[in-house]
Design a protein that fits this description.
single chain; 205 residues; 5-stranded antiparallel β-sheet; 2 helices; globular
């Protein structure tokens, strides 16, 4: 079980001091997958070859938008790469599988807003933060940047990202249970898990 540190109600020092970019390093590669309604996005645990539903894949590169922090930038969503511009409609998606090639900070966002409104609640999944040594699940209630509106749970995940290799990950936010893991089978190889006592509806990933 990964070690975790819950700084509920206040941002952690590591979050305040860390340096990272949205979407990882400059020219980091992402491959995302989703399925149409009525089918699964990935194989079952014991039947990896038998998928149901149509899987849509896309590959894109994320730019370096500077050193941004969810807990310090009020209009945070203005700097996030919108996957929908690459032909993937992720409205209402609460589970996502993807591959990322990055030295660190392969980060993803789930929001209560479907139009980029940063005043709405936001979840951020950080994979390979703190110099590729830790990962984290963050929640921000609004854009006030007050400590009482922020929560973070941190997990030890040394060397989880790799600069020159696509690595597979998944994230999930269902009924207040937030998880992320390695591979393309959701629920397997969990690296982080946190239950939000007051979850919000995810409208866009």
């Amino acid at each position: 079980m990964p070690n975790r540190r819950n700084a509920r109600g206040s941002p952690s020092r590591a979050i305040e001091k860390k340096k990272r970019t949205i979407g990882g390093q400059e020219d980091s590669g992402f491959r995302t997958k989703k399925s149409l309604k009525g089918g699964r996005k990935w194989p079952e645990k014991n039947d990896q070859e038998n998928t149901r539903g149509l899987v849509i894949e896309n590959t894109f590169t994320t730019p370096n938008n500077g050193k941004l922090n969810l807990f310090q930038v009020a209009d945070f969503l203005q700097y996030v790469v919108d996957i929908n511009q690459y032909g993937l409609d992720l409205g209402g998606i609460t589970t996502l599988t993807f591959e990322a090639k990055a030295c660190r900070d392969a980060n993803t966002i789930m929001s209560n807003s479907d139009n980029g409104n940063s005043s709405k609640p936001i979840y951020e999944f950080i994979i390979g933060g703190w110099g590729n040594q830790k990962s984290a699940i963050l929640r921000r209630n609004d854009d006030s940047l007050t400590q009482s509106s922020q929560q973070v749970v941190i997990f030890n995940t040394p060397d989880i990202c790799k600069c020159d290799e696509y690595r597979q990950f998944w994230i999930s936010a269902n009924n207040g249970v937030l998880m992320m893991g390695k591979g393309l089978i959701v629920g397997i190889n969990v690296i982080a898990e946190w239950t939000d006592p007051d979850p919000f509806t995810v409208k866009k990933a």
